[in-house]
Amino acid sequence: LDTNHTDSTSPFERMFEMVYNFWVTRAVYAAVRLAIPDQLASGPKTPAELAELVQAHPRSLYRLLRALASIGIFEECEQGRFRSTALSDTLRSDVPGSLASLVLLELGDSHHRAWGELVHSLRSGEPAFDKAMGTKIWQFFADNPEPALTLDRAMTGLTMLVVSDILNIYDFTPFNKIVDVGGGAGGFLDAILATQPEATGILFDLPYVIENTRAKIVETVADKRYELVGGSFFDQIPSGGDLYLLKWVLHDWSDDASIMILKNCRAAIAENGTLLIVDTVLPPGNLPAAGKFIDLNMMVLSGGQERSAEEFDILLTAAGFRLNRVLPTKSSSSVVEAVPVEALTHT
Ligand code: SAH
């Protein structure tokens, strides 16, 4: 789509393009679902060859490829073949930073059905996911191993998009023991520890997530400098760290639940420790921010939300932390740094 609007583009044309974007994302989803980007990694193929490989209807598949090639995803080349492009390669499953799993997760069955019930969320204040899928999202992932693995891979891909920027703007050298709370597949902790040869870490997440991560580590890298600990951050968080990370965690949760997680971090953190929250920090008013749509995704999926700096401040204060500073990154995520304040009162 041509997003280089001149003043002559009418509001009606711009609105039509927004509608059209729905078809674009459905087409991208279908291409990834059929693993077309993977199939084209070995070289250009005709729609008929591809259709044979992925069990598709040749003419229909051709039309999908033609549409996607019109926006730079694939390219029609000689003898009616299609080849990969830089854009389609982001959707290969085997490239570092692959966005294939993100597409399968965010545009796939469960999330697509949840978004179909957005109006239900608006009327009721409840996550549409629960109505569409008949279960809460974290229960859904606990009960469905395949989507749970897709979530881990999707978060790993997204993490690779933002991590070098976070490492550039934030100095991790003062820290010896880093606890990643809700750390998922460990991509963030991996990247930090790779730059901090003396530091160790704890990757903390739900037990089944930790078991998936453990299996992956055995397959690939044997001697990681972190412990894997399974549990719930609503019960207890491993203590003794001087840096606690909450990346893309608090936005999944209501204010009350977020305060519980933060209080458990407060109970675990060293007195001179530091807490980093990585989430979008919403700018006020009409300022554009991807976080404002990520916020709707959270409304639909989990009943969570994106927050402004003031809203993070309120949560942190309620849990015994003080917000120190907010560091924006080039991506939609910011780094919110907080430190423990008054001695913890047990409730
Ligand atoms: N921090 C990771 C993952 C973010 S997704 C990253 O940035 O890539 C949110 C994570 O919270 C998931 O890994 C999920 O398993 C974890 N989570 C959800 N409920 C949890 C709970 N009760 N205790 C611990 N972790 C939980």
Model description:
The structure is a single chain. Helices cover 48% and strands 14% of the residues. The relative contact order is 0.08. The termini are far apart. The protein has helices at residues 11-33, 36-39, 47-54, 58-69, 86-89, 100-106, 109-115, 118-124, 128-133, 137-143, 145-169, 187-195, 207-219, 255-268, 291-301, 309-318, and strands at residues 75-76, 82-83, 177-181, 200-205, 226-230, 243-247, 274-280, 321-328, 333-340. The protein has a 7-stranded mixed sheet, with helices on both faces. Strand 4 (200-205), helix 13 and strand 5 (226-230) form a beta-alpha-beta unit. The chain has 347 residues and is of the alpha/beta class. It is globular, with a radius of gyration of 22 Å. It binds S-adenosyl-L-homocysteine. Residues 138, 155, 159, 182-184, 188, 205-206, 209, 232-234, 247-249, 252 line the site of S-adenosyl-L-homocysteine.
> What percent of the residues sit in helical stretches (DSSP H or I)?
40-55%
What shape does the CA trace take?
A: globular
Uncertain segments of ≥5 residues (pLDDT<50)? none
Instruction: Output the number of helix runs.
Output: 16
In angstroms, what separates the terminal alpha carbons?
55 Å
| Strands, total number | 9
Strand content: 5-15%
Based on helices, strands and strand pairing, what is the structural class? alpha/beta
How do the helices and strands follow one another from N- to C-terminus?
HHHHEEHHHHHHHEHEHEEHEHHEE
**If you average the pLDDT, what whole number results?**
94
Biggest sheet character: 7 strands, mixed
Please give the order of strands in the largest beta sheet.
5-4-3-6-7-9-8
Radius of gyration: 22 Å
**Ligands bound here?**
S-adenosyl-L-homocysteine
